[in-house]
Amino acid sequence: MFTFTKPVTNLVVTFTDIDRTPGDFLDRVELDGSWTEVSRGAGVSGAGSVASPWVGGAAYNDSTSGAGNVTVKFAGPVSTFTLTYWNAETSWSDVDRNQAVFVGDMTFDYQPC
Q1: SS3 string of the chain?
Q2: Which domain range does residue 34 map to?
Q3: CA 20 to 30 Å from 80, out of 17, 23, 31, 34?
Q4: pLDDT along the chain (113 residues), means of 10
Q5: Phi-psi category of 12—alpha, beta or left, where left has phi over 0 and alpha has psi -120 to 50?
Q6: What's the Cα-to-Cα distance from 24 to each of 9, 46, 54, 85, 88, rounded to whole Å?
């Protein structure tokens, strides 16, 4: 959960490294709130919702490639948003089972006191 002490506007956030390694991890990500997808890397499918989370593609994407990135823009003032992540892999081999997604660039406008 991300919380701002005062509401912000024009919030744009990039989530990175949504991918998979068979037998290790299958990233799934959902985002609450009212937002619009600005861009999505070629290695990500889904809509970022509960019914259709973003899902890592068929192969591992290096975190610097952009193929596992999603950028969204929130409508109106935002005080909080929640990103939910889970590993949907159903079987594991002896790979390290090390999985993560990252919050990359975040920009917004605010009204000072």
Answers
A1: CEEEEEEEEEEEEEEECCCEECCCEEEEEEECCCEEEEEECCCEECCCCCCCCEEECCCCCCCCCCCCCEEEEECCCEEEECEEEEECCCCCCCCCCCCCCEEEEEEEECCCC
A2: 2-109
A3: 17
A4: 95 94 87 96 95 86 82 95 90 72 93 78
A5: beta
A6: 38, 20, 18, 15, 10
